[in-house]
Specification:
Number of domains: 2
Number of helices: 6
CATH topology of the largest domain: Pseudouridine synthase
CATH superfamily of the largest domain: Pseudouridine synthase
Distance between the termini: 8 Å
Structural class: alpha+beta
């Protein structure tokens, strides 16, 4: 592989790592192996630290493809826990409310699910990497400062639910770039009247690229070392 000229590789991002952790790890190992001081490495679409799955990494001249790759629709699987909420809409922060889910019916769940399919306006989480006046939104949130998040237009092309583990709801979703699945989980719970939190998330595809073709960070590091 010619990482210096340009490669696009598929990484299965591990739990707890930021997308930048993966980029930095691969960049550092490439510089050490190639004995160079600089090489372009970037990712095409951030994954939250608590999410796993497909992270598209570009090196060299292929970094010019990042904007195009980032714009591709994404597919995810994951789990929403109904009846509990957190400020971050996921497990980064502690639960701040617990509500009864005994009155939530399958009919109501299906009605709410249908309402999420299509083009809509979505407000990103305050605990997100969105830029607000030159700073990340999560910097304001973690400092306890109140900020106004502006809605973005997104599109959900499909949203499948599996309710056999209620109040945990497993899902599969196909959506446009810029969709925050944490906001989907929170809004889904709000619309049911009981609140909801995203407790697991895995990206399985980005455009035509699939997690089935991805390798772990360690596997990629081994490939780099054996070049």
């Amino acid at each position: 592989m010619d990482f210096l000229s340009g490669e696009t590789i598929l990484v299965d991002k591990p739990f707890g790592w930021t997308s930048f952790d993966v980029v930095n790890k691969i960049r550092w190992n490439l510089k050490q192996k190639l004995k160079i001081k600089k090489i372009k490495v970037g990712h095409a679409g951030t994954l939250d630290p608590l999410a796993t799955g497909l992270l598209v990494i570009c090196t060299g001249k292929n970094t010019k493809k990042i904007e195009q790759l980032t714009g591709a629709p994404k597919s995810y699987t994951g789990t929403i826990l109904l009846g509990k909420t957190t400020p971050s809409y996921d497990l980064e922060t502690e639960y701040d409310s617990i509500q009864d889910t005994s009155s939530v019916s399958l009919e109501h769940i299906e009605q709410v699910r249908k309402g999420f399919v299509g083009i809509q306006q979505q407000i990103p989480p305050v605990f997100s990497a969105k830029q607000i006046d030159g700073k990340r939104a999560y910097d304001y949130a973690r400092a306890g400062k109140s900020i106004e998040m502006k809605a973005n237009e997104i599109e959900i092309s499909s949203f499948k639910l599996h309710v056999d583990r209620f109040p945990e709801i497993d899902f599969e979703i196909n959506c446009s770039k810029g969709t925050y699945i944490r906001s989907i989980a929170s809004d889904f719970g709000k619309n049911l009247g009981c609140g909801g939190t995203l407790i697991s998330l895995r990206r399985i595809s980005s455009g035509e690229l699939s997690i089935k073709d991805a390798k772990t960070v360690d596997e990629w590091l081994k490939i780099i070392q054996e070049m």
